[in-house]
């Protein structure tokens, strides 16, 4: 009952899209009959009044088969896509596993939204991102246990994140050279900066950077649609590349890896219930921290980021207690992550992105493609493990929760805790540097000077992030060789 309530009342920017289209169509149809029966002079005035209604459709010729307002229908689709993904993982042999698991869920969501079977934006998707996404990190960290064991092994993921961030910067330079997005006018460079922040620290920094740089609402929505489409294609490619990388042995007890659960007389269902209740409590603590920071004017931190910070703090100071909160197995976490990957695919309607802003779609495609090529190519030259590079790239493009999801779904348990530790630093840097500089430019300078400094600030954001990432990499190397 609680899940259904969350779906109905979950806030979403696109929650009223499908009903609005139906409403406009019925309204336009009824008014067209009135126009046919009215005199010629009144027809012109009515047509003038109706003219602003038409562009809101944005090229959609028909409503999806499962409208955005159909909560049960959308949840049925998401859970079915997740189930089919898990079934394909079970049926496909290990050596022919290119179309298995999370890749199937992403492709099903992407195909359904692009074909018009489901809506690209729906309250069910928003509820999944608002409720399930913040729960994934606590559940994963509960099983990781004492994170003090993972600190020594976080140096390599930190360097891999640094490499992925530099690869995103290179991809931005190449993409802006090939696709300058001149159709956006003055918003072109701002969208490029926002997409760069998104593909360094995840999607949660995109809206904050757009708001700070003063990007118009239409350009921001177009960039969001293009980014969602590219993200879906990216994760499909990522899981295809990760198909031949085997899972780790479950009994591994290497440093930083998942430790075996303590044996007691607690029923598995009871342990899972305790884990879910604790995850909800941690999420609530993250919400309170987010609201307190917002009251202080610090709006760059996202809910998954603060949730991860809360769990990391609990794990460091109360390692034995946090271990007792672990669920009985990874079944619940895997199901949650499969649903989230289905949401990633459903949000990435290629048709909507092409009809809205093809130039932004092309820019993001070149940017992410160069990021992936440079990350894998340079990582191979530097002798990084392939699975480490894939998890680091997922953290750059999708955020720390996506990185944890990739590691959990693929069975790379030793990378879950180090990925979260390194991903927290990445998210903190992108949010803090970008939002702080934008706040300075908008509040401490008069308008004529702010226009000039704003352009310089976009360069400083990139250089500041690069220098900070280099500092983190040097510190990680120092910690690795001095221990």
Number of domains: 2
Strand portion, in percent? under 5%
- The secondary-structure element order is HHHHHHHHHHHHHHHHHHHH
Uncertain runs: 1-60, 251-263, 436-483
- Straight-line N-to-C gap: 52 Å
Q: Which structural class best describes the helix and strand composition?
A: mainly alpha
Mean pLDDT: 70
Q: Helical stretch count?
A: 20
Give the helix level as a range of percent: over 70%
Largest sheet geometry: none
Q: How many strand elements?
A: 0
Could you describe the 3D structure shown?
The chain is mainly α and 483 residues long. It has 2 domains: 23-55, no CATH class; 72-482. It has 20 helices and no strands. It has helices at residues 2-9, 17-37, 40-50, 71-91, 102-115, 123-144, 155-178, 187-201, 204-213, 217-241, 268-295, 303-317, 319-323, 331-347, 350-356, 358-381, 386-398, 400-410, 416-443, 447-482. The chain starts with a helix and ends with a helix.
């Amino acid at each position: 009952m609680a899940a259904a309530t969350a779906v109905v009342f979950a806030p979403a920017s696109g929650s009223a899209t499908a009903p609005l289209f139906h409403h406009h169509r019925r309204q336009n149809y009824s008014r067209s009959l009135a126009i046919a029966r009215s005199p010629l002079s009144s027809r012109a005035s009515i047509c003038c009044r109706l003219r602003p209604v038409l562009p809101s459709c944005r090229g959609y010729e028909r409503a999806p088969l499962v409208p955005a307002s159909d909560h049960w229908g959308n949840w049925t689709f998401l859970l079915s896509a997740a189930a089919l993904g898990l079934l394909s993982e079970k049926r496909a042999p290990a050596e022919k596993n290119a179309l298995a698991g999370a890749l199937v869920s992403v492709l099903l969501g992407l195909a359904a939204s692009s074909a018009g079977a489901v809506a690209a934006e729906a309250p069910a998707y928003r509820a999944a991102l608002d409720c399930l996404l913040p729960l994934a990190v606590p559940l994963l960290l509960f099983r990781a246990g004492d994170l003090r064991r993972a600190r020594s092994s976080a140096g390599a993921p930190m360097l891999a994140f640094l490499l992925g961030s530099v690869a995103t910067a290179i991809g931005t330079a190449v993409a802006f050279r090939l696709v300058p997005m001149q159709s956006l006018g003055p918003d072109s460079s701002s969208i490029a900066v926002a997409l760069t922040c998104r593909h360094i620290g995840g999607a949660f920094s995109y809206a904050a950077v757009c708001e700070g740089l003063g990007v118009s609402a239409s350009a921001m929505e177009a960039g969001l649609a293009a980014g969602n489409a590219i993200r879906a294609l990216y994760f499909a490619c990522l899981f295809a590349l990760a198909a031949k990388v085997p899972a780790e042995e479950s009994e591994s007890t290497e440093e930083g890896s998942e430790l075996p659960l303590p044996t007691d007389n607690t029923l598995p269902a009871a342990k899972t219930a305790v884990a879910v209740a604790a995850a909800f409590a941690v999420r609530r603590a993250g919400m309170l921290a987010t609201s307190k920071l917002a009251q202080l004017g610090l709006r760059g931190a996202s809910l998954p980021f603060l949730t991860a910070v809360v769990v990391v703090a609990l794990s460091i100071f109360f390692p034995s207690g946090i271990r007792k909160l672990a669920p009985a197995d990874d079944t619940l976490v895997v199901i949650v992550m499969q649903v989230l990957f289905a949401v990633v695919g459903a949000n990435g309607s290629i048709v909507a992105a092409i009809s809205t802003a093809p130039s932004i779609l092309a820019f993001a495609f070149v940017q992410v493609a160069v990021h992936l090529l440079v990350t894998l190519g340079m990582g191979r030259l530097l002798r990084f493990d392939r699975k480490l590079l894939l998890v680091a790239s997922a953290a750059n493009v999708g955020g720390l929760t996506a990185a944890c999801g990739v590691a959990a779904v693929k069975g790379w348990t030793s990378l879950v805790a180090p990925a979260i530790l390194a991903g927290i630093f990445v998210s903190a840097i992108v949010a803090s540097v970008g939002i702080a500089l934008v706040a300075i430019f908008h509040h401490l300078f008069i308008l004529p000077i702010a226009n000039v400094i704003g352009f310089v600030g976009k360069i400083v954001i990139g250089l500041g992030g690069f220098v900070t990432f280099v500092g983190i990499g040097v510190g990680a190397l120092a910690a690795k060789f001095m221990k």
